[in-house]
Design brief:
about 190 residues; alpha+beta; VC0467-like; 10 strands; globular
Length: about 190
């Protein structure tokens, strides 16, 4: 592997053949020679609220609960929850990891309980499921022009915008006009 994309954003292009990633923006939590792991940051799960997740997990809500969407992080393990956050110490739990640029990732109910008490990190989102790639798979998709990569920006990563609006915003942050993208791939 010639490059490490850990901590970068992936932005799908019209050349993306997998409809599950149509107009997706993903944060790449890990990228090694063994594969890659990321979370979609712009795919809300229709009809599912954070309050409903707290109810399903029997986590009492005792503080102000922000109204934000629960995201579909990817097609793998779609019922497993991941909280990506910045601005708080990671809970002392074996299932919380420090990521690039001061971000943390947790699968622990402890972070959800903290949010429900009103002790939310400065910036966070909850995603169910993740996107995963085997060795060389992501590199192949990038070579086929299915993904563009860009630097992570909290304004994109924790944006209140979702769907195509955030996809457009991510492309524009790179100076790319979404209307200029083509599904055709090639080399100059």
């Amino acid at each position: 592997m010639d490059f490490d994309l850990t901590g970068k954003l992936l932005i799908s292009t019209p050349a993306m053949g997998d409809t599950r990633f149509h107009r997706s923006v993903l944060y790449l939590c890990a990228h090694t020679s063994e594969g890659a792991f990321g979370l979609a940051v712009n795919r809300p799960i229709p009809g599912l609220t954070f309050t409903e997740v707290m109810d399903q997990l029997n986590i009492p809500v005792t503080g102000p609960l922000p109204q934000r969407p629960v995201l579909a992080g990817g097609p793998v393990e779609a019922v497993r929850g991941f909280v990506l956050f910045r601005g708080a110490e990671a809970p002392d739990a074996p299932d919380c990891s420090a990521l690039a640029d001061g971000l943390s990732l947790s699968t622990s109910p402890a972070i959800l309980a903290a949010i429900a008490r009103g002790d939310a990190p400065a910036a966070w989102f909850l995603a169910l499921g993740y996107a995963g790639w085997g060795p060389g798979q992501l590199e192949d998709e990038i070579a086929q022009n299915a993904w563009l990569t860009c630097e992570t920006d909290d304004a994109l990563l924790f944006s209140p915008e979702t769907g195509s609006a955030l996809w457009n915003k991510a492309l524009q942050s790179m100076g790319v006009d979404p209307l200029s993208l083509s599904a055709m791939s090639g080399r100059a």
